[in-house]
Amino acid sequence: MSIRGELFTTQVLLDNRSYFFNVKENRAGDVFLQIVESKKGDGADFDRHQISIFAEDMQKVLAGLDDSLKFIEKERKERAKIRAEKKAAKDAKYALGGGTEKKIYRKKSEEKKDDGIKRTGKVIHIKSKKE
User: Fold this and answer.
1) Around 38, how many Cα atoms within 13 Å sit in the side-chain half-sphere?
2) d(CA 90, CA 82)
3) What's the confidence (pLDDT) of residue 43?
4) What is the pLDDT of residue 46?
5) Mean pLDDT, to the nearest integer, of 102-111?
């Protein structure tokens, strides 16, 4: 055991922050997990936040974390399914040869100009003269 009571430590580096998972033992011999988040703050300072989870509470915390991860995965799959259904409906509606076409509305003051510039809202596309 080291001076600070660390038994094991591992680090996860991300773009703008780091996470440290430290297994420690206090003076009474209790083993606990310390999770530290460190991110660069103003100037050369680092913002550090930590939580400690004692060994007897670890299973409950891990069960809560597991439930949260299952919910996130289920929600992600449901959203992906909804996005795919919307995309399929849109593709079916505007597919070539399939019923209705996408309508383009223009102001009456706008005249269709054949100057080689395709005007679509805020973006201007230059057409090729080779057509």
Assistant:
1) 12
2) 12
3) 74
4) 85
5) 63
Contacts of 41 (CB under 8 A, 6+ apart): 47
d(CA 96, CA 115): 27
Q: Enter the tokens of residue 50.
A: 């930590």
Distances (CA, A) of 11 to 22, 23, 61, 79, 117: 9, 12, 20, 32, 55
Q: How confident is the model at residue 42 (pLDDT cuts 50, 70, 90)?
A: confident
Mean pLDDT of 69-82: 96
For 22, other C-beta atoms within 10 Å of its C-beta total 19
Q: Under the phi-then-psi rule, with left for phi > 0, alpha for psi from -120 to 50, and beta for the rest, what region is 89? A: alpha
φ/ψ of 64, rounded to 5, equals -65, -40
The enclosing H or E element of 62 equals helix 58-94
- Which residues 6+ apart lie within 8 Å of 18 measured at CB? 11, 12, 37, 38, 39
DSSP single-letter state for residue 14? -
> Is the Cβ–Cβ distance between 34 and 22 less than 8 Å?
yes
